[in-house]
Design brief:
71% helix; flat
C-alpha cells in the first residue's frame, strides 16, 4: 500500500508558480525569437509588402508624382505651364476620387488581388496544357484522345469540294 503524503499549501503554490514562470519564460523566449527573425528578414529583404489597398495607394501616389513632374516639350513654353497645371489638377482630382474608395474598402482589394492570382494560375495551367499538345504534335506523338491513329488534316492540306 502506498502512502499518500499530503502536500502543504505552500508547496502547491510554489509548484504552480514554477509552472506559470516556465510558461511565461517560454512565451517570452518565443516572442524574442520571432522579433529577431522579423528584424533579420527586414534587414535582408526590406520591409514586407502591405495589404493590396496600401500597395494600390503607393502606386497611385507614384503615378501622380510622375505625371505631375512631366514636362511638355512639344508644346511651347507658354502652353507648357498651362498643360502642367491641367495635369496636376487632373491628378489631384483622380487621387481625391480613388483614395476614399481604397480607405473604405481595403478588404475588397485584398480579394481582388487573390482573385487575380487565381486567374493567373488558371491561365498558366491552360497555356501549359496547350503547349504540351503542341509539342506532342510537333514531335510526332499522337494525341492520346484519338483512338484510330488519324491525326487529322494538316494545316496546309487541300480539300476538294467537288
Amino acid at each position: 500500500m502506498s502512502e499518500e503524503r499530503p502536500c502543504s499549501d505552500a508547496a502547491q503554490e510554489e509548484a504552480e508558480e514554477v509552472r506559470v514562470t516556465d510558461a511565461d519564460a517560454w512565451a517570452t523566449a518565443c516572442a524574442e525569437d520571432l522579433a529577431a527573425e522579423k528584424a533579420r528578414r527586414r534587414a535582408r529583404y526590406g520591409p514586407p509588402p502591405g495589404s493590396a489597398a496600401e500597395e494600390l495607394k503607393k502606386i497611385v501616389d507614384a503615378v501622380a508624382d510622375k505625371l505631375s513632374g512631366l514636362q511638355a516639350p512639344l508644346l511651347g513654353a507658354a502652353a507648357s505651364g498651362t498643360a502642367q497645371q491641367m495635369v496636376r489638377q487632373v491628378v489631384q482630382q483622380a487621387k481625391a476620387a480613388v483614395e476614399p474608395v481604397i480607405e473604405r474598402n481595403p478588404d475588397v482589394f485584398d480579394h481582388l488581388a487573390a482573385a487575380g492570382s487565381e486567374l493567373l494560375a488558371a491561365y498558366r495551367s491552360a497555356v501549359e496544357a496547350q503547349e504540351r499538345r503542341w509539342t506532342n504534335r510537333a514531335s510526332g506523338d499522337m494525341d492520346p484522345r484519338r483512338q484510330d491513329g488519324d491525326e487529322g488534316p494538316g494545316p496546309g492540306e487541300h480539300i476538294d469540294l467537288d
